[in-house]
Amino acid sequence: MRLKATISYDGTNFAGYQIQPNARTVQGKLENVLTKMHKGQPVRVIASGRTDQGVHAVGQVIHFDTNLEIPVENWKKALNTMLPEDIEVLHITRVADHFHARFDVKNKEYRYILLHTEKKDIFQRHYSYFIKEQLNLDAMKKASSCFLGTHDFTSFCGSNSTVRGEKVRTITDIAVIQQDEKIIIRVRGTGFLYNMVRIIVGTLLEVGLGTRKPEEIAEIIHVKDRSKAGNTAPAQGLYLWKVFYEEKS
Questions:
Q1: Residue 199: CB partners within 8 Å, gap ≥ 6?
Q2: Fewer CB atoms inside 10 A, N or C side of the chain?
């Protein structure tokens, strides 16, 4: 049977989601636990997408196939008992054999958290990006609206990306939200390029700091040149927040 699970993880001590030789990864830990449960038989885990080193997940989605006769309601406890403390299974359910955690995704939501205070909080250093300079949130909100819709996001794709072909993606929602001492940049879309959200955030920060104007965003998108966009924001502020599927996945 095929099982679908929603998981959270603290990306601080992982080399990213995707399995890598001689590195601690989320996929590696998941597959090691499942292989033990299956008496040494390898079990492949498929995720909605990979996250980079230092990036966190609140609602990553995975699927895997199993022949174990374990009631579905017992899988969550069984996995969490064996997984490290920085990975947690939140929910698990049986799905149709044709369900695919990656290819069936309809939308993903990422959130980037900025700690906007006078003094750095060392206890938040792995979970937000500290910035003390004054930010013009109105300008950032105005600039963010330029990303809405379907565009070629070549300018917002990491230069070391392995993506071939067109880099057209659709942003369905974007917001810049102030919550006490935190600024949250929420981005939802049908798909994302390598480092796309972090480059969008880095560019919006330059707008907020006054080194770019909101009106420049449209031209940056148009020229399809990575060097024209802002710096890539650090990994630790980024969270894969939620993955959306059709209701009857």
A1: 155, 156, 157, 158, 226, 229, 230, 231, 232, 233
A2: N
